[in-house]
Structure prediction request, 156 residues.
Amino acid sequence: MSPVPIEQWGRDHWSTFAYAMACVTTKAGRLDHRRMRCHPELHPGLVHLPPGLSGAFPGTRLKEGKTLPRHDDWDCLDDIVAAGLLTHVGTGMHPGIVQALPPAWPIAKWIWKVEAEGGRWSAVDLEAARAFGEESSSPIHAIDAAQRLGGDGKLK
Prediction:
């Protein structure tokens, strides 16, 4: 499957990106597999189903109400890597380790700002996000905001 272009990303891509960036700043880029939506047929080695959860997989929500039925958070992560925001540094045995690339920081800072102000960012305004904080692509300026988020991406 070819990567989903960033302009088509919806809530699932952006929440995966925000979670990964929180992990970059607070957990050395280590993702918790239990916090990733995983399609058991696509990524059987990464699946974690909470007790009692089974049935149809909902797929990935895109912009304008579209859904990709056989697409999960691990696929979203691959799309984020393809967009040049993150890079995989894990291995085949431990794939859930990522690092942020410079273009990711302004977008992450914009998301954290919107969230800190009580807003919703399920649809990211890419122009505003890229412009926000462009004066520095350093993670140091984003760490203060990120540390208010726990490893689960929720405000402390």
Notes: Confidence is low (pLDDT under 50) at residues 136-156.
